[in-house]
Design a protein that fits this description.
Blueprint lengths: L9 H8 L3 H9 L6 E4 L7 H5 L17 E5 L2 E10 L5 E8 L1 H5 L3
């Protein structure tokens, strides 16, 4: 499990000072925006059921409100979390687990 508040190691700081082309490329892509998708559940519908949807339709999902949610980048699971309410009444995700596949791809 990863820790979002972990301090950089001496090796990480050394990599930042490295002016090699590979490291310059790595630093350049850190600012590229990606879309984070939070998946709260799924439901398979027939085409007819989709066409029958109206503004008052309610679609039951395969999960419960207290179940963990999945955080995905480009359809790749990167973390899991729980839905929380923000101070202004919005919703947010509190990270509870970093996906093992995401940890393995960092090397």
């Amino acid at each position: 499990m990863g820790n979002a508040e972990a301090k950089p190691s001496i090796t990480d700081l050394g990599d930042r000072r490295d002016d090699s082309p590979v490291n310059q490329f790595r630093r350049a892509i850190y600012g590229v925006p990606v879309t984070l998708t939070v998946s709260v559940g799924h439901r398979r519908l027939s085409v007819q059921e989709v066409l029958d949807l109206t503004p008052d339709s309610v679609i039951a999902l395969d999960s419960r409100i207290e179940d963990p949610v999945s955080l995905m980048v480009d359809d790749k699971l990167i973390a899991r979390g729980e839905l929380v309410e923000t101070d202004d009444g919005g919703i947010a995700v509190k990270i509870t687990e970093i996906a093992e596949e995401a940890d393995a791809s960092e090397g």
